[in-house]
């Protein structure tokens, strides 16, 4: 385990130079997020919302032209060409155009925030897949190095058996330990390949090297976990989208109430009868007389507005829960990694004593092999705890918009 111990000592002593080490390049992440289908779909829906807002601002009130031509035949008088033409257009009553513009504006705001939230969710997925890959690779490195160390230990034991300085049982025990280490190395290598394949499938635009970077040492944010937790709520696009949808529903309810008085239609009419003997022009006016149907639609819109307001409150509760969860997980994952590091240091010190005792003939090889396995396990536990700490801190930074999806505003 000498190389493994040396590598672990260097890693434990290292200090990160960057605020968020171990992550891919920011420009590469932005390009990968832009290319993700969920983000592209959300951007397309934003374009649709803008088009709908323009349509609402213009209104659906269009000119309607109606015309007719008739050839009339009258006994003992002859035939006559007659025509009729009229042009009508509905007119929005005062206040309705303003409400339509509000509905469109709130719809665009909701769609834009949904698009930003889609980017947010894609960023969380990328971070999750990224740390799955790096964590599996870190454990695979530990297992490969352990297998190499067991192989060297077995070779040394066999040389001692050849000169009758050790029993064949010692060689058998060392070979068994090597076999178990090789199985663990194969399994962890498979998990690394699987994690990389999943990451590449979800984000094909993200460049991935053949060798992943090592999982860095976790570092708590300079401004503190609580400050980032507050930013999770402050910068939540999910809350902003829900609020915009609630406002849109409220404007839609007001529009439905205003629509209980229907919009009138105005127009002009021209006609010619009996071959031009009778001609005329006039003004047309029509207006639907609303009843129970329009009243029911207004009641429906009021209920939907109330539901949208309740949904917005539920979203705020959910985001608050996310913020509290992020802060809690960041704290305990970081503390767990520190305990794992302390445990690894203790196991390293114990193994050094076991090795010295075995060389002096005071400790059996089985005891040293047990110590080697315990150090190997301690390295794997530390690597896993380090990965989970980095995963939790990265999620907190993404949720607070400190990285990838827009810098936080102070």
Automatic annotation (TrEMBL):
Cellular component terms per the entry's GO annotation: cell outer membrane; efflux pump complex
Organism classification: Bacteria, Pseudomonadati, Pseudomonadota, Alphaproteobacteria, Sphingomonadales
Signal peptide bounds: 1-19
Keywords for the protein's UniProt record, in alphabetical order: Cell outer membrane, Membrane, Signal, Transmembrane, Transmembrane beta strand
Localization annotation: Cell outer membrane
Any GO molecular function: porin activity
Organism of this sequence: Novosphingobium malaysiense
Keyword Transmembrane: yes
UniProt KW Transmembrane keyword: yes
Protein name per the record: Transporter
């Amino acid at each position: 385990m000498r190389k493994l111990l040396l590598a672990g000592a260097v890693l434990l002593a290292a200090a990160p130079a960057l605020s968020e080490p171990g992550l891919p390049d920011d420009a590469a992440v932005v390009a990968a997020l832009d290319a993700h289908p969920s983000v592209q779909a959300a951007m397309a829906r934003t374009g649709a919302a803008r088009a709908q807002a323009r349509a609402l601002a213009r209104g659906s009130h269009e000119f309607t032209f109606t015309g007719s031509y008739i050839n009339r035949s009258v006994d003992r008088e002859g035939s006559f060409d007659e025509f009729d033409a009229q042009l009508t257009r509905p007119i929005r009553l005062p206040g309705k155009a303003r409400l339509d513009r509000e509905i469109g504006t709130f719809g665009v705001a909701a769609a834009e925030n949904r698009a930003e939230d889609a980017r947010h969710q894609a960023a969380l997925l990328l971070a999750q897949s990224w740390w799955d890959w790096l964590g599996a690779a870190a454990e695979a490195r530990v297992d490969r190095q352990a297998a190499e160390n067991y192989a060297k230990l077995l070779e040394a034991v066999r040389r001692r058996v050849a000169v009758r300085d050790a029993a064949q049982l010692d060689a058998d025990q060392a070979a068994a330990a090597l076999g178990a280490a090789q199985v663990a190395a194969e399994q962890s290598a498979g998990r690394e390949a699987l994690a990389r394949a999943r990451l590449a499938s979800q984000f094909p635009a993200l460049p991935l090297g053949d060798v992943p970077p090592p999982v860095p040492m976790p570092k708590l944010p300079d401004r503190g976990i609580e400050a980032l937790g507050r930013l999770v709520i402050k910068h939540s696009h999910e809350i902003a989208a829900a609020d915009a949808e609630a406002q849109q529903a409220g404007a839609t309810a007001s529009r439905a109430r205003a629509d209980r008085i229907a919009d009138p239609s105005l127009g002009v009419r021209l006609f010619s009868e009996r071959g031009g003997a009778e001609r005329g022009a006039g003004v047309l006016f029509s207006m639907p007389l609303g009843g129970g149907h329009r009243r029911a639609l207004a009641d429906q819109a009021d209920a939907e507005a109330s539901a949208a307001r309740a949904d917005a409150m539920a979203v705020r509760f959910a985001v608050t829960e996310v913020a509290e969860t992020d802060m809690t997980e960041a704290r305990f994952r970081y503390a767990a990694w520190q305990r794992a590091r302390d445990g690894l240091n203790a196991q390293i010190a114990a193994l050094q004593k076991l090795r010295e005792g075995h060389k002096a003939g005071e400790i059996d090889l089985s005891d040293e092999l047990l110590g080697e396995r315990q150090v190997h396990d301690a390295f794997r536990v530390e690597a896993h705890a380090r990965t989970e700490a980095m995963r939790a801190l990265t999620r907190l930074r993404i949720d607070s918009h400190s990285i990838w999806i827009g810098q936080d505003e102070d």
